[in-house]
């Protein structure tokens, strides 16, 4: 009995204190073991708590050791000293989910995040405090930053979640990429970074702090790299391991922009190259991007979808082949962990960007053969053998003899995702709508708001960002014989409103939004003013506040003027400056205040003559939840711009009317050569974002669900439909001597549409037979092996498929299967 108690006590103690993190220039050491760490970013508020276990489980199955997340200050402290950690914001629950899955955590407290998140994660009330300047030695800022950072650290400590306490968090981050913008802050910037380091250090978290993109990071901060490639990165302290906090797996999307893609081959190449050249920690930003629900999208103009072309797509589905190809890479790298962290490194340069790196310990060696040439394949002779390394790729040989992995040779299926109609609806295409107008009478006809000022203010200052909407209203009186009163009058507004709707005397005179990233424009419209009192009502709308750049907090938003009325009388132009007029302000819209989006809202809705293309209109409908478990999206094709709610949950801003430009897409994108965010774009000339994620946990599986739309520009809701998203078909194109796994995820494979073993041609969806082909019936073999099954594993070999004579060329199996 005594010994049992002793044993239990020992176990308890060892559990609490087992994991100590240190670093020794080559690797992070955890619990005495030097590690090769693969990590991925998942931002908890960009999915729901119900999605977290599955996302984290898939991350682990994808070969990750750790999950990285920012902490989002403005979400947690929306009003000063009033905190919210509920639902999607339950940081502790998220960290515990990581722990439950046995993964490590990297906690980027910031509290500046960037992250295409509204205002980079800073609360707008912070900006509105007196004498405030962000991210410099400003007392008010530093006090608030310390307050929030300390609070987060204390919360996490209380739950024993730092590795020093036996928890999962092995690294913490203070600030974020300050080095990229610090120039304009001058000496204060340098002092601020020192203060950040001291402040973080004083919090005594027991794990190392990182500062990404900070090459003057004060010791003991670890400076780390962010980018598409980090193989050239050298930390400022020789004792700091080479760490990559953001390997961008794709890119974000803006309204009016296209869909970014970073090829699987190139992501894998960047990772392999990083480990070839002494890297030890690689984090994918993002591993799951998710959704910017509500008003969390940054900006201006970041879309609701934050898919990022990440290994897990916006909805949590495997993005294949990216997920699978990287999983294989992780498995190979993990298998070499000992050699990579203890081995002596030597490099052979073959010229023409080809090189071999050998990691050697007494027990054995592991090799990387790299070819950074964009055009030509390299033939590397090594220890009497000859290896072909394709252009822009890395081959990994865990034993320096046998090729286990090449970044450009994908042996994972490509999954083609499809949207399926909602089968729970009897008549899915005809949702029944009711509607109501947004009540704007007080503003349009009376110009009456909540407060008045004889000045035009930045929108943030007035609204505290409690809403996207701000009315700027004024009245202008003209005498009957006023010189101004003529035919040729116009209203000219110098605007930094992300979107502007202008009304004069109750009439909509025009709208404008920023285009091509120009958030500073002139709105000018001819207007007929009348004698007597005229009401000018300008509705300014923000679409995500700026999140990046030096002093980004003071980038203007709203209507900062000047505003003029001009009158032209022959050659003469008379200008009346309204900027110092009495302006009446009103934050938000009435329908939002009366919560028309609530399911239980008692307001009256009309089912009679539901209008199309009407601005400022509320629409409501009910629908049945789609059957099954596949992720749900709502197709908002036909609508203009606005906000959507499902059962009272704000699923984000929508703007399908914003069509991306026709040019600049590249369907046959070449993975060779350095990636940048304008490479490999798709979706040209299409609505920027048509489908909007509706997490299953927002839905009632039984009974009715409510969708409410606030349509601001005018649109047609009759095409709106709920759909599910899943794998529709899959393809593979794999060389012999590989094993290919085929899977439709949650469904069985239903048919083999194409299969050929030999030298088939074409791409997924358009495969054709080549000049040589096996005489065995490949379709039959695959049908037998795979159809009706959720998963099948095929050995691509002559033994399995016969021996077509392809005159010496390596044979391939091409398959297309229907799910
Ligand atoms: C980095 C930043 C991230 C994210 C990324 C682009 O500069 O640290 O938070 O904004 O760019 O997606």
Automatic annotation (TrEMBL):
Keywords: Glycosidase, Hydrolase, Signal. It catalyses: Hydrolysis of terminal non-reducing beta-D-galactose residues in beta-D-galactosides. It is an enzyme of class 3 (hydrolase). The keyword Hydrolase applies. Residues 1-18 form the signal peptide. Its EC number is 3.2.1.23. The keyword Signal applies. It holds the Pfam family Glyco_hydro_35. Residues 734-819 form the SUEL-type lectin domain. Belongs to the glycosyl hydrolase 35 family. This is Beta-galactosidase. It comes from Brassica rapa subsp. trilocularis.
């Amino acid at each position: 009995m005594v010994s049992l108690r002793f044993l239990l006590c020992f176990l308890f103690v060892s559990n609490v204190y087992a994991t100590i993190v240190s670093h020794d220039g080559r690797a992070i050491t955890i619990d005495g073991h030097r590690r090769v760490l693969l990590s991925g970013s998942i931002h908890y508020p960009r999915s729901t708590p119900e999605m977290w276990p599955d996302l984290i489980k898939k991350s682990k199955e994808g070969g990750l050791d750790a999950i990285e997340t920012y902490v989002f200050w403005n979400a947690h402290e929306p009003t000063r000293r009033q905190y919210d950690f509920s639902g999607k914001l339950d940081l502790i629950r998220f960290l515990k989910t990581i722990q439950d899955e046995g993964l490590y955590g990297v906690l980027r407290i910031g509290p500046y995040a960037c992250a295409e998140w509204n205002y980079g994660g800073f609360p707008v009330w912070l900006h509105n405090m007196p004498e405030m300047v962000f991210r410099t030695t400003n007392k008010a800022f530093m006090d608030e930053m310390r307050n929030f950072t300390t609070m987060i650290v204390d919360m996490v400590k209380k739950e024993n979640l730092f590795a020093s306490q036996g928890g999962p968090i092995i690294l913490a981050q203070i600030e974020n990429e300050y080095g990229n913008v610090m120039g304009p802050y001058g000496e204060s910037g340098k002092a601020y970074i020192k203060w950040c380091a001291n402040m973080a250090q004083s919090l005594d978290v027991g794990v190392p702090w990182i500062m990404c993109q900070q090459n003057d990071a004060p010791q003991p901060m670890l400076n780390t790299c962010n980018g598409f490639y980090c193989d050239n990165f050298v930390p400022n302290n020789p004792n700091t391991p080479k760490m990559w906090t953001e390997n961008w797996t794709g890119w974000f999307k803006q309204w009016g922009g296209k869909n970014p893609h970073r090829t699987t081959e190139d992501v894998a190449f960047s990772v392999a190259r990083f480990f070839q050249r002494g890297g030890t920690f690689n984090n994918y930003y993002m591993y799951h991007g998710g959704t910017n629900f509500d008003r969390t999208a940054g900006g201006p103009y970041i879309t609701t979808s934050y898919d990022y072309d990440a290994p897990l797509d916006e909805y949590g589905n495997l993005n294949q082949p990216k997920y699978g190809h990287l999983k294989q890479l992780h498995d190979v790298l993990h298998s070499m962990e000992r050699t990579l962290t203890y081995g002596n490194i030597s490099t052979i340069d073959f010229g023409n960007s080809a090189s071999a790196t050998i990691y050697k310990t007494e027990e054995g060696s592991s090799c990387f053969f790299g070819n950074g040439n964009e055009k030509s394949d390299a033939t590397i002779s090594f220890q009497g053998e000859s290896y072909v390394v394709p252009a822009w790729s890395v081959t990994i040989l865990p034993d320096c003899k046998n090729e286990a992995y090449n970044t450009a040779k994908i042996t994972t299926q490509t999954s083609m995702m499809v949207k399926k109609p909602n089968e729970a609806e009897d008549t899915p295409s005809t949702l029944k709508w009711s509607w109501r107008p947004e009540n704007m009478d007080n503003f349009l006809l009376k110009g009456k708001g909540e407060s008045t000022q004889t000045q035009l203010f930045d929108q943030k200052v007035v609204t505290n960002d409690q809403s996207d909407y701000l009315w700027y209203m004024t009245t202008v009186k003209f005498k009957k014989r006023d010189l101004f009163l003529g035919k040729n009058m116009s209203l000219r507004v110098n605007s930094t409103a992300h979107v502007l709707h202008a009304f004069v005397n109750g009439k909509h005179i025009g709208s404008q939004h920023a285009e091509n990233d120009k958030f500073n424009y002139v709105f000018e419209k001819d207007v007929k003013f009348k004698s007597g009192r005229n009401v000018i009502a300008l509705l300014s709308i923000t679409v995500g506040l700026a999140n990046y750049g030096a002093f980004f907090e003071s980038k203007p938003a709203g209507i900062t003027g000047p505003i003029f009325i001009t009158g032209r009388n022959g050659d003469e132009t008379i200008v009346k400056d309204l900027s110092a007029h009495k302006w009446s302000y009103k934050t938000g819209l009435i329908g939002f205040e009366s919560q028309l989006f609530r399911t239980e809202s008692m307001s009256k809705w009309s089912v009679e003559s539901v209008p199309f293309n009407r601005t400022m209109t509320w629409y409501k409908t009910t629908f049945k939840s789609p059957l099954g478990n596949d992720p749900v999206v709502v197709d908002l094709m036909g609508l203009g711009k606005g906000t959507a709610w499902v059962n009272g949950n704000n699923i984000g801003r929508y703007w399908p009317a914003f069509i991306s430009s026709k040019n600049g897409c590249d369907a046959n994108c070449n993975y060779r050569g350095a990636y940048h965010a304008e490479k490999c774009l798709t979706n040209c000339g299409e609505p920027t974002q048509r489908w909007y994620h509706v997490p299953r946990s927002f839905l009632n599986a039984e009974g009715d669900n409510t969708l409410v739309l606030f349509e601001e520009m005018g649109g047609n809701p009759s095409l709106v439909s709920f759909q599910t998203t899943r794998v529709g078909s899959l393809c593979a194109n794999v060389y012999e001597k590989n094993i290919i796994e085929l899977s439709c995820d949650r469904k069985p494979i239903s048919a083999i549409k194409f299969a050929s073993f030999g030298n088939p041609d074409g791409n997924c969806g358009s495969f054709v037979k080549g000049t040589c082909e096996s005489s065995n019936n490949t379709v039959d073999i695959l049908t037998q092996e795979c159809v009706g099954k959720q998963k099948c594993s095929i050995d691509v070999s002559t033994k399995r498929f016969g021996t077509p004579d392809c005159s010496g060329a390596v044979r391939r199996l091409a398959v297309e299967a229907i799910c």
